[in-house]
Amino acid sequence: MATADDLLSDALQLPPEERARLAHELLLSLEEDGADSDAEAEWTRELERRAQEVIDGKVELVSPDDARRQVAERLERLHQGQ
Helix (H, G, I), strand (E, B), or coil: what is residue 56? Predict the structure, then answer.
C-alpha cells in the first residue's frame, strides 16, 4: 500500500485541473466523515441571508483591496490601543 507521501508525490505530477479535482474529492470525503447536517443547513441559511442583503442593497460591497485596507487599519488601531 502506498504511503501518503508517495500519493502526494504522484499527485503533484498531475496537471492543475486534476490536482484540483483530487483535492476537492479529498475535502468532500472529510466532510462526509464528520458531516453535520444541522451546521450545513445553518450555513446555507446564512449564505442565503447574506446574498439577499446584497440583492436588496442593504449592504455596501467593497473591493478585496479595500477590504484588506480596512482590516489592516482596524488591526493597527487595536494594536495601538494595547
Answer: coil
Report how far residue 39's alpha carbon sits from residue 69's, in angstroms, rounded to the nearest whole number: 31
Residue at 59: amino acid letter: V
Instruction: Check: CB of residue 71 under 8 Å from CB of residue 79.
Output: no
> What is the distance between the alpha carbons of residues 28 and 40, in angstroms, rounded to a whole number?
13
Residue-level pLDDT, tens digit, the chain, 82 residues: 889 999 999 999 999 899 999 999 988 887 765 556 778 888 889 999 999 999 999 998 999 999 999 999 999 999 998 6
Grid cell locating 36 = 453535520
Q: Would you state the cell numbers that stand for residue 61, as one nine-digit string?
A: 460591497
Residue 58 has what DSSP assignment? -
Distance CA 61, CA 63 (A): 7
- Which single residue is written with the C-alpha cell 451546521? 39
